[in-house]
Amino acid sequence: MSAPSAPRPGTLCVHGGVAPDRLTGALVPPLVQSTTYAWPDLDHPPAITYARAGNATVENLERRLAVLEGGSDAVCFGSGLAAIDALLRCLPRNARVVAGRHLYGGTTRLLHRLHADRLRVDVVDTTNEAALRTALEAPADLVLVETPSNPTLQITDLFLATRWAHEAGALLAVDNTFLTPLYQRPLDIGADLSIHSTTKYLDGHDATLGGAVVLHSRHAGQGDAPDGPLAARLRWIRKASGAVLAPFEAWLTLQGSKTLHLRTREQWGTASRLAKLASDDPNIESVYYPGLPDHDGHEVHRRQANGDGGILAVDLGGIGAARDFVSHLRVFTIAENLGATESVATHPASMTHADLPPERRRLDGISDGLVRLSVGVEDPEDLEADVRVALNQVARRQPVVA
Ligand SMILES: Cc1ncc(COP(=O)(O)O)c(C=O)c1O
User: Which of 85, 157, 175, 203 is catalytic?
Assistant: First the structure.
């Protein structure tokens, strides 16, 4: 008899890391909502004593994320930013952080506003091989990249980033929110940490806020301690700061994660149809989608990921056209967040990246005409028609001169 093959990603989404409840047999493990736990006597504390120190439902989600990413441990937090904040707090004072130029606006704010007096942050265009090489000729403690990045889907070469980060003595942390572990597994490439805003695809229903750091087995560790292995330090920081993920949020995220493979397959398919439609439209100046052959970094992306994602961005050339476009969308909602069942259109300059100085936005390609589209699971034909109608309205306002 041949050995059973390893479970595939869809099977892991449904079953990974989680078994039916041992006490009741409940197929969906119950939500553990208790703040505190009984001690049989003073010499025998329970495994978890208090909700800030741990929670069984959150641990179920952590096991699922670790299995999906091929990591040894995952540590969940109250949001994606709380996860990144905890990682930054693990670094010693004056540590050197090489941060990608292309990051979610909130991550940039965290680095430059909250951690500015603790850390030395060098912003580097990590999508540029020469700039990355030069930056990592000097010693560093942490390299933090997003690929594809929010909102312009810029690509960093994870093979080069891993090699050069390690030569510089740094950890490589990859924000893998956009592709999910189903389509990119940074730890398999050699990265130390894969970070998620679980708020996005992993929950996938616009219902929770959460984050996670998934760790390579090099950084595994039990329990919590301020000076232990990285996994233990992250748990200690979570306990000390209180940046916990609420059990109900974890339970909902576990439920959402079971259909990750089905949702993303649909979203990826529709996004590539919309990217093609947008590329053929004369009202659109630029389309950003890693699946397009002329997207910067397309070849690199294809080497390190096995999917293009459900997010694209289009540049309509100015704030007037961007306003016209989003205001005529009927199936897409104007909103923040991404990766969920509902399609949303976001204007990064006034929403997700509004806190960046205009000059920095300009350098990063976040123009006033840029609109980010997160494709949901509505029928692709309806989404295509929605975009077509909105683009026609833009065309009526600004006739294209042949
Ligand atoms: C790529 C990326 N990382 C991190 C975050 C922050 O996550 P959260 O909103 O869960 O704090 C976001 C939020 O949009 C994001 O897009």
Answer: 175
CA atoms within a 13 Å half-sphere pointing along the CA-CB vector of 399: 2
3-state helix, strand, coil in the chain (%, to 5): 40, 15, 50
Query: Residue written as tokens 């309806």?
Result: 382
Rounded to 5°, the CA angle 247-248-249 comes to: 90
CA distance 68 to 53: 24
**CA-angle at 257, arms to 75 and 31, nearest 5°:** 70
Q: From the alpha carbon of 82, which atom of ligand 1 is closest?
A: 11
Q: Residue 178 corresponds to which amino acid?
A: F
Task: Spell out the domains of the chain, with CATH numbers in brackets.
Answer: 9-257 (3.40.640.10), 261-397 (3.90.1150.10)
Closest CA to 110 of 67, 146, 158, 60: 146
150 lines ligand 1 (CB under 6 A): yes
**Could you give the CA distance from residue 82 to residue 283 in angstroms, rounded to a whole number?**
39
Catalytic (active site) residue 258: no
Sign, CA dihedral 206-207-209-210, equals negative
120-124 and 73-77 strand pairing: unpaired
Q: Is 175 a catalytic residue?
A: yes
DSSP SS3 for 298:
helix
DSSP-assigned beta bridge partners for residue 333: 344
Gap between the Cα atoms of 354 and 2, Å rounded: 56
The pLDDT tens digits for 197-226 are 999 999 999 999 999 999 999 999 999 999
Backbone angles phi, psi at 134, to 5 degrees: -60, -45
Helices (H), 202-350: 230-241, 247-257, 260-279, 298-304, 319-327
This prediction has a pTM of 0.97
Amino acid at 34: S
Q: Which helix (H) or strand (E) segment is 334 a member of?
A: strand 333-334
Q: Using one digit for the tens of pLDDT, what is the confidence trace for 287-332? A: 999 999 999 999 999 999 999 999 999 999 999 999 999 999 999 9
Please check whether residue 210 is in contact with residue 256, taking contact to mean a CB–CB distance below 8 angstroms: no
Radius of gyration of the chain (CA): 22
